From TrEMBL:
This is Ubiquinol-cytochrome c reductase iron-sulfur subunit. Residues 1-31 are annotated as: Disordered. It comes from Natronomicrosphaera hydrolytica. Residues 1-29 have a biased composition (Basic and acidic residues). Keywords: 2Fe-2S, Disulfide bond, Iron, Iron-sulfur, Metal-binding. PANTHER family: CYTOCHROME B-C1 COMPLEX SUBUNIT RIESKE, MITOCHONDRIAL (PTHR10134).
Amino acid sequence: MMPPRQPDELSKAPDGKPMDQQPKWRQDFPIDVPQDNYVSRRDFTKFMVLTSGAFVVGQSWIGLHNLMRRFRGKPPEQPIASIDDVPVGTAMSFRYPRYEHCILIRPDEDTLVAFNSKCTHLHCPVRPQLETGRLNCPCHNGYFDLYTGRPLAGPPRRPLHRITLDIRDHVIYATGVEVQPV
């Protein structure tokens, strides 16, 4: 066991001068510079074990989450709206499956498209611009094609997830989520 050190020995100024020649603020708040730069093997080992453990837990959680997503299967079919509720040149929002925000667009008489409304860059909600034929992400000025969901400009690189639709008896149904390739 090391003998206790005197208070003056605890602090060694960075310039090496004795403490009585240091400014008042340094005398009032002395810092033991050699001790401040010292990292013991035990502290380093603790840091490495804790950091590695955090990475293992994080990676396991991501892997488990992806595995559970595969076993969930196809989302159930869900009615969205009547075809009469979506006039030509309009869009409406809905949730599918369950909590995901989506957008249904009817740009012309014969076309109905639906996409997940989260931008593939940083998940800001996209907004339809029917007059320009694009979907706009206002957060970073990203643009997607209104008909395909493909990125046209800005930071997004991946297309929007397409919601597959089916129309029966004038009712629009969401039937699945199609993840489009890059």
